[in-house]
Fold:
Amino acid sequence: MATPLEKWVEEQADLTKPKKIHWCDGSEEEARKLIETGIKEENIEGTPVFKELNQNTWPLSYYHKSHPTDVARTEHLTFICHNENDTIGPTNNWMHPDEAKEKMKNLFNGCMKGRTMYVLPYMMGHPDSPYAKACVQITDISYVAVSMRIMTRMSKKVIEKIGNLNNFVKGLHSVGDFNPERRFIMHFPEENLVQSIGSGYGGNALLGKKCFSLRIASWLGLKEGWLAEHMALIGVETPEGKIYYIAAAFPSACGKTNFAMLESTLPGYKVWTLGDDIVWLNIGSDGRLWAMNPETGFFGVAPGTSLKTNPNMMKTLKNTKFYPVLYTNTALNLDTNEPWWEGLDGDIPENLIDWQGKKWERGSENKAAHPNSRFTVSIYNCPTLSEEYDNPNGVPISAIILGSKRTKLLPLIVEAFNWEHGVFCGARSGSETTAAAAHSVGVIRRDPMAMLPFCGYNMGDYFKHWIEIGKKLTKQPKIFTANWFRTDENGKFLWPGFGDNIRVLKWIIDRIENKVDAKETPIGLIPEYNQFDLNGINLSKEKWEKLFNIDKEEWKTEVLEVQKFFNQFGNHLPVELTNYLEKLKTQL
Ligand code: OXD
Ligand code: MN
Structure:
């Protein structure tokens, strides 16, 4: 008798009508074959799915070009399909599950004709972890099959694990005809199901990532008592050899990946990498918060990545441990057959084609690499990978950092008064959508805990859930807000960032170890100038004051904006947040 998994695959095949079905086993041998297939297979407008890159200088590396309309997540085409509109809240797009299913059925009908259907069995999380989830994704493009091998633990053992159960996470994906008019990413949280059509882009197509491990998982977390978060995960080793584990939320494109691989500029301190994008947080039997990264790879933004900004990532990309490394929508150096992007080390090559395959003229206004061009590479290639990465129990968390990108207003680092206040700080956080020019005010998008595009239910209830989790912890991690991006009156960054962010991490650890005091302000606790390690950098007291200034007028405007944002959630908003906002108002 067919298992529920076999039955489900058969049903999807009946609907999408592929030429053949290939069950993937996740082996390297298979990945090599898939790449070979992709090199011969036409993708769009005569380009193959994969192109081999210079194997001497970029070993195991292959290039993929997307459809020009398909280069980023498409939030307006992303829907959460709960029965009730109220369940998803004001920050998500809603469609009734019946309507969404009907719409998708029509779009999927026959969409794989003449194509191969790949069935990908994979785990999110270590297979031995009680928190891991068994999943299966169907796709019709080798690029997604190979990417999922890098990003997840793909193995035929998952099929055995699923056995006769029907509770596995289901993902149906097809690139369709890449037409944005027929592109939808539908989430059915009640059924552990994602359906995605019309896009081959990471966040839309690698369904284990944002779709399952954040949107659906956040909903599972609400029902089961845990949190799925948009966070990097690191271990910070002190000169005494103690390691503290820290989870840090930053909105997309705020340097989360660089942070995850930070090269310390302080002697004796070292950062160990566990993840750069997603963290699942569970309450351990010891009452502490335990974290794990359910993914096994990095899907990172290429532009700006260099030996200067992220030497460990450059080493990761060139490491030959795990096959293969993918580059998507970067520029290409025609003379050397190497990938290239703005910010990469060395001179700009003479003979470049841009991400759309056109000759790139030096000095052109257009970027050669798409600003959201990406690399996909295994975490096992990372030279700073933590020894605890594969621990099925995860790691115990000592601190949570909630980051924002604000050129004004927000100090470098602020410690929340307590867990609930930390939730308030995360809930009110927002980031500038564009890098603001000198003196101009950036457009602020509220992005609580960096989860705005990824929370699979009403964010008012999400804040409540955070507060509830805090109540269940007998040892709560400290919560901090961080902002590397504050500028002076000339628009110059006040803080050096990158490797010097270790100084902030050191202060956090000093606070955990009760080694330093902090100054109380209306927005939280900030460091004292003389108790913060500035050895080796030139940061005057005057600059420090600007970095930590709390401008009451700016904060008064902020409070009004936050109030407006909070109001949308009506009675879903926990009273604790209203109280903290009122308190802040009075103190200002
Ligand atoms: C990502 C994102 O791709 O956050 O990680 O957009
Ligand atoms: Mn992300």
Observations:
- Residues 230, 252, 277 surround manganese (II) ion (ligand 2) (CB under 6 Å).
